[in-house]
Design brief:
Structural class: mainly beta
Number of domains: 1
Radius of gyration: 22 Å
Oligomer: single chain
Shape: globular
């Protein structure tokens, strides 16, 4: 097994499960994925039949109902991680919240329209990461953009330290102005 292959559990809309290994990205080709099953066989699976792909810690082969053990499907409060907080509604009306990163991988998935990678709400669950095919989703709602407190405080300190220049208007009110780069 290649080191880039990770444990996954695939769930279809008919609640059929498949256990195996997939790379972390780049697994979708021509509308299907090729799953390396736990017995070593390569199995092509059409992406349109899948509801989600769960990257997991353990397979839990004896659990035929909820081997992913995602736990909570929504956040109880504001997420602690960084990223875009999303609420997905599946075609079967199931709800799932998660965090996705705002980076090139996120932009690529939006441009390619294949799906989204999410971090599930429960960090202690068996599921480390989810891939949700775009065809499985009925709607996506952005609930917020979550940043680390240290980044927020740094932005506030920069704003308070006067990195922007202040100008007094004719009425005596202080307003922020854009610094000029060239003398005009």
């Amino acid at each position: 097994m290649a080191p880039a292959q990770k444990k996954v559990i695939l769930r279809s809309f008919t609640n059929e499960l498949a256990w195996g290994y997939l790379p972390q990205s780049g697994f979708l080709r021509e509308g299907q994925i090729t799953l390396m099953a736990t017995d070593g066989r390569l199995t092509p699976i059409p992406i349109k039949t899948l509801k989600r792909i769960a990257y997991v810690r353990d397979f839990n082969l004896d659990d035929k109902v909820d081997p992913e053990r995602i736990g909570r499907m929504t956040f109880q409060a504001r997420p602690r991680g960084d990223g875009i907080w999303l609420k997905l509604t599946f075609r079967d009306d199931e709800l799932l919240e998660g965090l996705t990163t705002l980076d090139l991988a996120f932009a690529d998935t939006l441009l390619d329209d294949h799906g989204l990678f999410l971090t599930p709400p429960d960090p202690r669950s068996n599921t480390l990461r989810l891939f949700v095919p775009r065809m499985a989703v009925h709607s996506i709602e952005v609930l917020g953009f979550v940043t680390a407190p240290s980044l927020r405080f740094a932005a506030q300190r920069a704003a308070q330290s006067g990195t922007r220049s202040k100008a007094k208007s004719a009425s005596g009110v202080i307003t922020d102005t854009q610094p000029s780069l060239f003398d005009e």
